[in-house]
Amino acid sequence: MHNINKITLAMVFGLAFSAHGQEATTEQADTSAQTEATEDELGLEVISVTATKRKTKLMETPVAISALSEAQLKQNGVNNVKDIANLVPGLDISTATDQSAPVISMRGVRSTNITELGDPAVGVHLDGVYSPRMQGALALMYDVDRVEALRGPQGTLFGRNSTVGSINVISAKPKFEATYGGVNVEAGKYKSRVIDGFVNVPLSDDFAIRVAAKGLQRDSYLEGYYDPNQYDTRWLSDEVLSAPVISEDSYQDIGSTVTQRENWWIDAAGTDPEAQKVRALTPASKDNFYNNADEYSFRISTLWAPLDGNFSNHTVFQQYVNRSGGNIDLVNCDKLRGRPAEYGGDCNNLLPSDNTYQAVVNVPGELNLDITYLRNTLNYNLNDELSVVWLLGYEDMERSSQQDSEIGLDPWDGAIYFLDGTGATSYSTELQLQSDEYGDLIWIAGVNYFHEKTTTLGYYDNAMDDKAFWDQPDRSTDALAVFGQATYNLSKDLHLTLGYRYSDETKEDVGGRTYRCSNADGCAPGWFGRTILNDLPTDAFEDPSIYPSYFANDNKGSWTHHDFRVGLDYDISANTMVYSYIASGFKAGGIGDVYEVVNDRTGDTTRFETQFDPEEVLTWEIGAKSSLLNNSLNLQAVFFYTDYTDMQYASVGSIGNVERLSSVEDEEGRPILDENGQPVLDFQNQPVIAYYTQNVPGSTIKGIELEFDWKPYAGGRITGYATWTDAKVTEDWITKWDYDPEYLFNMSYEESIDPTNDVLTTNLNGNNMAMTPRFTANVSYTHTVNLGNYGYLHGWFNVNWKDKSYTTIWNLDKHLDDMDFVVPDEATTYMNDTRDSFAMVNASVKYEPLSQGWYAEVFVNNASDELVQYWNNTSKGIGKGSFGMPRYYGVRAGFSF
């Protein structure tokens, strides 16, 4: 509870501070207010947005954009950017567990490289300032004015990495009118506890401060176990290591996991007889296991707007801290259910129970994420016709983590660690010159500079053999851009928009090293040296000086690009407009990793580089917006067509081969032992494994998006959207098949990752893009009952439906006839990359007294308890990945003052 207590203390301090605040005596125009009440009780509020980097009305802005208020976010249980996925047409957000980062997909476009080498395809901005690392998008969302989600290329105004859209989280600004605030609390399933609040204090007529904070704690919703039968037991407690013996030896078909029943190494792996016995699993405590939550954040913002001055200055300082167990891949037991033993069996053969929400590990999860933000926006009026806007942003992220990799599904044990010192620091500045909004020509011009330096310190530990340590002290990005956009009134109702941006981006790795450690070079304890390994401390391989060799990653790449936008919009009437534009978007290429691999037999060194090209989009869009029925119904409709070139696709695979001194294996994949019980070693042609990015030659994406917001009567409201999207690879993409080739082709690991293996050559032309359902729909209905003097009762019901889709770009079921899979078609249905359609139901009932000074609410999210997979990887016939949270319910309450 210590984090929740910190938030409580912050609020108490804020309240005490507010007692000394000076109430404003002069009313001022609120520069941050984004909603204006209408006189008609049935009329919808007028929402203003900043999609064009100036304040415009949502229904008069010629861009496909969704604006979400804080009330909507709270109603839908939103805690961070990841939770808004179902609220925006064409948006899908998953989690890459190894990097503890969200992966945002919009209109079929996403980035699969969320390491320091990759960039997102959907830019995330906080108060208009770009946030480069996707981990930063996980920062708790609280006391926000609104969230704007722009769809389509935003290359002209927002620039880099807004290839297909942009998400802008806009925090609530301080106000001058009065001292006020609010506190909200939530308690729910899995011992969830949430508290958030804010206080607004005007210190004078022209200076105000706002303090806001939020804390979130929740037990894990997983059925977790610690396994003493895995190779590396250094992290396990004595209680786990002394669990009851269930078998004196492996291969007795005793136990519920692979590591209990089939540890082929256990008889020879060490000298301690007690360590060779098969033991029971130990249930894990839910308060600190994977997929729990332990986060808090606070924000201090100030607004200075002198009454007799020509400027306003808004400053935001924010801190976000995450001390959870991190996330972990889970097995899709629903898809495996009923699979015959001859094809590998289902979760009953792999795990303690037939339940997706479970994990068996030997390395406890840990995530330490600290992010500091500083943002400043200065608006200065040069005269009645010109103004200057100056944006400054600074972000510092520090991260360390540890995560079990094979989750008990394979006797080959592994884990991934990121150490203290891993992080990223970035700063950006943008200077804009803007015209006023009253003439026939409205324009904006500016220059933007961005710098980021990332540092990575970590390693992958194959407990039995190889380790790879990454020491990347200085990977940097420098980006400079010059841009301009103007709208000219060709007539009273017809408007022409022209935009241009020049981008120059350089990425460089200075002093980067990848260190190597293995049994063959004497760094690791040796084959079957399990006893030796487990006598070592847990940090034994965190020192790069013990690694015998390394290869350098020094690399550099530069790219320039020209983006444009040409648009026309026409006001059919005062309440209806149509618009069309053609625009481009750009994401820079990457330097990738460099691999210098030594041939163990000859001593020769071979260098492999993994650079990749930029990706580009060109989109044509036509849309309409209309306010009907006395402004009680807002409709938005858009059709878009996107030509997508050189999409960046990242995956783990082989980039070449080299001779290595390694163990000789039998047909079962087990090392062959000599008369002394040691593995037989020989020089063998081994693949060079890398996490690298390819470019997909060409894809086409087209779709229709419809949004509606309707107040049919005084106490009712219906909102939602419906979409149709067709996103496919439309050019030949000849590549190596990388979707679980070991299982599908019944081949060895070495064969499965051999880039020269002709059996694996495939053409993915015609495949659907990942995480892009053909149809989606979302409908929310709110009904308010006026109880007279007793207050109000608000009922809310939401249904979100998504059609079936693919979780990867491989589309396994489309290749059953053109590839020589060894397993029968029936077996592929249990581990393919399809995601079934689903409907998720959410609901709440809230009571407010007549004064509306407080409220109490009961709610349920995912009432239908849908199992939804968002990220997919598959090995040895077992599909796994990240999944949405199961049914969650609770109560909320709050008060304002």
TrEMBL record:
Give all residue intervals belonging to the TonB-dependent receptor plug domain: 58-165
Chief localization: membrane
GO CC, sorted alphabetically, is:
cell outer membrane
| Residue ranges constituting the TonB-dependent receptor-like beta-barrel domain according to the UniProt record | 302-862
Q: Does the keyword Lipid biosynthesis apply?
A: no
Q: Which Gene Ontology terms describe the biological processes this protein takes part in?
A: iron ion transport
Localization (cell)? Cell outer membrane
Which branch of life, at top level? Bacteria
Stretch forming the signal peptide? 1-21
Task: Alphabetically list the UniProt keywords.
Answer: Cell outer membrane, Ion transport, Iron, Iron transport, Membrane, Receptor, Signal, TonB box, Transmembrane, Transmembrane beta strand, Transport
Record's bilayer topology term: Multi-pass membrane protein
Q: Which family does it belong to?
A: Belongs to the TonB-dependent receptor family.
Q: Please state what the protein is called.
A: TonB-dependent receptor
Which species expresses this protein natively? Answer: Alteromonas confluentis
